[in-house]
Structures are given as C-alpha cells and as structure tokens.
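batch_manifest entry 22 of 60
target: Replication restart protein PriA
source organism: Cohnella nanjingensis
requested by: lab member K.T.
priority: normal
notes from requester: please return tokens only, no post-processing; we will run our own comparison against the previous entry in this batch. if the run fails, retry once and flag.
--- input ---
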Amino acid sequence: MRIARVIVDVPSRETDRPFDYLVPERLAEWVETGSRVAVPFGGRTLQGIVLGSAEEAEVDRSRLKPIADVLDAVPPLSEELVEIGRWMSRRWLCPLTVSLQAMLPAALKGKTEKYISPAPDAAWTVLERSVYADFLHALESGGPLKLSQLLQQHPERADAVKQWLKQGKLEERQKVEDRLSVKTVLTVFAPPEAALRDALAAIPARAAKQRELLAYLLEHPEPIAQAALAEAAGTTTAAIRALADKGILEVKAVTAERDPYADRHFAPSAPLPLTPAQREAFAPIAEAVERRAHETFLLHGVTGSGKTEIYLQAIDRALSQGREAIVLVPEIALTPQMVERFKSRFGARVAVLHSRLSNGERYDEWRKIREGRAQVAVGARSAVFAPFARLGLLIIDEEHETTYKQEESPKYHARDVAVMRGRLNGAAVVLGSATPSLETYGAAIGASPGFGDRDEAVRPVYIPLPERVADRPLPRVSIIDMREELRLGNRAMFSRALADALRTRLERGEQTVLLLNRRGYATFVMCRSCGFTATCPHCDIALTYHRGSQNLRCHYCGYAEREPDKCPSCESPHIRFFGTGTQKVEEALAETFPGIRVIRMDVDTTTEKGSHERWLTEFRERRADVLLGTQMVAKGLDFPYVTLVGVLAADAALRLPDFRAAERTFQLLTQVAGRAGRHELPGEVIVQTYEPEHESIAAVEHHDYRGFTGRELGHRQALGYPPYGRLLTLTLSHEQVPLLLSMGQTFATRMRERAAAAGVRGDDSSSDRAAEVLGPVPSPIPRLKDRYRFQCMVKYRGDVDARAWAAETLKELAETAKRHGVQMSVDVDPQMML
Ligand SMILES: Nc1ncnc2c1ncn2[C@@H]1O[C@H](COP(=O)(O)OP(=O)(O)OP(=O)(O)O)[C@@H](O)[C@H]1O
Ligand SMILES: [Zn+2]
Ligand SMILES: [Zn+2]
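--- output ---
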C-alpha cells in the first residue's frame, strides 16, 4: 500500500471524503484497510481510519503528506465493518467518520496530545538558564514532555512555555493517543523454590517483613498482584520493592482483563428438550445456519413461549460450525437474569456489552471478541458492531423496541445493520418479539412493503409461536374503566378490582408488578387559579417536580429552580403539582396497605451503577411484595411468584403527537401483561384506563395482536405512514427564528423542485402523493438550550429516492448553515416523532 485513502475524524460535511496519504516504509506492514492512523491535517494531527489503498493519488504525489503513525497493532475495524460504515452513511445520511467511529469502543476514540521539546538551536538567555534551571534540564534530558501534564503540574510555567513556543525556542509536536490504555497490574513473580530458600537464608533477621514475604512465597509460589501479595503476606509494598531491587523478586506490569462478571458464578445449563412447537420454529432457523445462508426470520412468539431457548440452541448450532453469534437485547432488558441465561449455557465464550460498563470494561469485552476469545456477544444496540470475523447468526430480541434506533448521529437502526451484516457474512438473522413492529410484521406477512434499504427491502420468513410452553395459559386480562369508578364514588388511585387483587396477593405471599405508564405524563406544576404552568426558561418544556429535593427540573437541560409557594404569574397560593408520579403511587400503596413492601424503579432510583440489578435481585428473592415502576419493569423479567400485573394510566401516552402512539401503547401493555403467570402459578392482569374503547387497549384484553395490527396497518396505509410510506425529517436549530424559517423554506422548496424534476407528484392536494414535503414548522420541542428548533418532514413512497434529494439539498445548504452557525440534523426513518 503506497498511498492510503484516509477518512479523518472531523464530523463535518466538508471533510466527508477520503484524503490521500503516503505510507512511509517503516509503517508499510502495519497500514491496512480499517487501521486507525494519525495523520497531519490542516496544521493539526488527527485520527483517521484507512478506507483502502490507491495506485495513483488524486493530487500531485509530491504534495501528499505521510501518515504519522499507526495506532493499533491489529486494525480495529475489519474490511467488512468498513463496508458497513460506508453503507450506513449512505443509508442514514451521515458523514462517514461518524458511522466508523460509532463502531469503535469509546476507549479507542483517540485524542490529540501536544508534546514540547527544545528546538535544537534554541539560545537560552542567562536569566532563563538560572530561573528555569530545573525545568530546562528536564526538557533537555528527558525527551518531549506532554503539554497537558506539564501545565497541570506546573501552571506557573504556562507563560514561559507560551513565550518560548512563540520565539521558536520550543518545538511542539502532536500525537494522537488513546483515551484509555490496556489496564496493567503490577505482578510479582517469585524465583524457583531453591533460589527462594537461598534468598531467605541470606536475608538478615532484622528485615522481618522481607523474611515473612519470602516465607509466604515459598508456600504460594504462583504469580500474584503486588497489592494482593502485600495484603496476603501482611507486609508492605516497600518490602516487595526492596526485594525486587535486590533482584530476588521480579515485578512486572501484566495486562489485566476487567471482567465485570468475574466474581459471579453461573451454574451451567444444558439445552432443554424443545416442545413440539419450539421444534417446529427452530427447524428453519437451524437449517439456514447449517447451510450458511443469509436469511431473515421473524420469530413471533407470545410472552413466555420459549423464544430465548430457541435463540440458545440456534447459537449452539452456529458455534459448532466454528462460527460466531451476536444477540441484541434492549438496554433495559439486559438484566443479570438475561445475561445469566447466556453465561450459563456458553460460559466464558460470552462477552457482554452494555452501557453500564466502564469504558475500560467495555474495551476489554470488545478485545475478547476481536481477538477471538469470545464467540457470543450479548449486548445492547451497538453490540451489532461486535468485531467478529466469522459471524453465523444475529439475533435481535424484542425487535420492536425503539431503543434499537439511535437518536444521535449516526441515527442508525440496529435491525437494518444486523440484516446487512447477515448479508455480508452469509449469516442468519432472527428478529424475535411477542409484539413485532408493524414494519417487520407487515413485511413478513406480505401486507406492507419490506423494511430496510430502498433497493434491498427485507421480507423476513414468518415463524409464529402462539402458545406458552408447557400449556401454561396466557394471563387473564381485565380492563377497568376509571370513569365508572369515579361515578361510583371511588376517587382513589386504585380501582376496587386492583385493590382487591393486590390484597389477595399480599395474603397469599405472591408478588405484583405495577406499571405506571408515564411517557407524556410529566408531573408538572400548574396554578389552579390562572392555569400558569412552570416551564424551562431555556427549552419551552414543562418543568418536572421532584419531591425529594423539592425543586423543579428540566429533563432536557438540567435547569433547576425551587418549588414556588405562590404563582409567579397571578400570585395565587393555589399552585401545586399535577400528574401521577411513581412517588405518589408509592405513598398511596403505603396508605392503603399498611406494611406493604414496595420496590420503586424509575429514573430517580436507578441512576446509580448497579442499582437496577440490585432492585431486581431483591424482588426475585421475594424481599418485596410489589415492584412499581415505569417502562423499565415491562421487559424481559421472568419471576415465578409474580401472579398479578397492574397497569395505572394505560392511556397516558395515547395523546402524544406521534403516529406510533397506539402501537407503542399496545406493545407496552402486552409486554407487561406477559410478566404474569409465567411459571406454575396462573397470572392475572388489571389494566386501568379512561379510554377502554381505544383499539390499542381493548385488543390487550384478548391478546389480539393480529386484530389490532390489521386495523392499525389499515390506518397507516390510508395516511401514507410507515410501513407504507417513509419519513425523513430535518431539524434546524439556531438562536434566531427568521434564519431558521428561511433555511427551512429553502429546504422545502428545493425538495419540491427535485420531486418535480424527477417527475414525482408532490402537491398536497393530490390523493396519490408520492412525495410530500411538510414544513417548516416549530419542532415538537420548539426550543432547547436557548436554541429555537424548526423541522421539515418529507413523507414519500418507497419507490421514490427522496433520500438522495435530501443529501443533495443538504450539501447545498451546508455552507450557509456553517456561516450562520445553524445546526442541521437529518433523521432517515425516524422512530421518535417528539
Ligand atoms: N422446552 C422447554 N421446556 C421447559 N421449559 C421451557 C422450555 N422452553 C422455555 N422454557 C421455560 O419457559 C419460560 C419462558 O421461556 P422464555 O423466557 O424463553 O420465553 P420468551 O418467549 O423468551 O419470553 P418473553 O418474550 O416473554 O421474555 C422460562 O422459564 C423457560 O425456562
Ligand atoms: Zn396563577
Ligand atoms: Zn431546559
């Protein structure tokens, strides 16, 4: 490779193309596609990724600069992942470096460090020589000094350094360094036994600590971490160092793995004999894995139907072929219980990737995969980029979950990435859910267009699994009309039915899961006299009341203010907070059922690392009667003593301005209902609502996925929403409105012109619109952190290439946007309309 094509890590549209660099002789062996390199770029040194090689440079060869350094011994990205990155940036319209960086663990996101050293011909004055004697000596004898470190240790030298750099007495060099290196542990190695005995005999009796140490090592000769040895032998590290200085012991830095599950024991589990229904569902998946054929499946299995056991056995097939597997689960469902099922079956071959790991832990898990020491990766969204070389199977559990779409750039959907990796690797892809998304389900049963990329629409093979294992029935669901309760004089938070059912559970020692659907149900402060609501001064979003700290907080920017005791607008004292928060439910439970043991899980109680796990373990060990929480209690939990599930405010999210509101509500209710009666004890579900007739709620009563979905697909088709039409949104933000309006209008106009040029009907009045451009209008969140936000939405049919028009239009607007500091953010196939 004489010339390397490098994509530099500057996430802007102007630099979004490869630049050519010479590969110096000394690096020739190390530079490959996917290598991370340091390159000079516009006077700086930046990190870049090698995309490939070129025979001839695009510019005059003599003007090319050489690559400064290669940052890893093995390229962190394979050719396949580089290919995936290229495809992602076309698919979701983001700069290539953004999609490439998304595949690297945070620890490998290099930062540029400055080093200073004296210029060879620097002429120091006598004064400098005397005032800075120590410093100059260190500089001249010790090699380049890291600037950031120097300034931290000696801030008083900053002025002198600046001066000298300006005078050319110091030279500055930049190097790209990893944010984090491999962790090393100082480890003590003892000599062979005979040498140890000799040493012990030679140590004078007064060096008691050293003698104790050697005696200990005679008993325990295996290498041991220095700190652990000091503790175990009851001595100090000074004693160890003294022996090392004498050459008796050897102390070396040894790379250590941070295994977050190191202190946990997983009882091995053997494959369960599959039920006939499971066997039937398993067969086509196993067959595809054996054939090494890329095929996508939708495993539509009701809650508790044994999907996970099918995943485990399919993975086993892939492993026995010497291939590897990725399992994606929603972040929130990545509980110890879930991890345990995989660790128990596959032991140390499993690497776990989730956001609660530290950067270092994540990096170590990632290296296990990259170096072939793990064959199964279980993780949240970004685990889809697990750097395996022989992928045979990709599984996405709870495939309908919105968390598989990343909300920041690159705004990719892990489902689409999984299918693309499946294609490139000849691997099977299994999408599993009790409530598949309309996109996947519609495509699988042939009712709507395929999902995914325009030219490569995916139609999964449909595999139904309609029964729970072992003939366990689905739980009985009752819908309670809360208006009726009110009419009968019950003003409490719990309907009579739910209160009775709860009481029975308490008597029997069984457990209850209570879900408070709080999306769009903020606990906001309102004045009863004038209707004033407290909003964030930077974001135009209602502030949320926090009882613990007695203040009002903005969930978007963190702004906080004290709870008002009178209305800031009309001075009325009748200002109070509204809405049902989990805290309020907890209080109501304690009042209604004295002595009840409640675990509350919401954003406030689960911020601390590991707290989520702790609560669930406590609940599993039956140290609480009720698990009360928001969305996070709805997913993936499998507790034998849960026989009652209650839902408060089932309709809370139905009025959100999002065309998926009904679908989300149905999915959430069905999933949480599925937590009841999964083992021997039968389950019961009570859903409280003010809108019992709403399709998404009524359908839950009879577990009627097909009925609900059929009607919902009809609505979507009539309105041209996904999965029939596609969406693309552009959000513009800036401190000033007029600029946003004019840029938004330019975008909309240029998009309409492009539609017309392509011969596509785009006028709003036509019933057969192939592409429609809406906006600019204020975004659902009209202001965020003091910036106004406007958006345009493009609604288009799958056969229209509106994405390409958007890409061209954005390129045209890029210069203006940069000049005025307008942020443009495009979302292809958005999942969240808020
Ligand atoms: N073949 C089998 N024989 C006996 N028990 C089984 C079998 N398959 C699964 N189970 C058990 O049935 C229960 C439900 O299975 P599992 O959790 O795999 O279902 P699931 O479809 O993944 O559920 P959900 O989507 O609701 O999380 C578990 O306790 C599991 O151990
Ligand atoms: Zn008021
Ligand atoms: Zn705010």
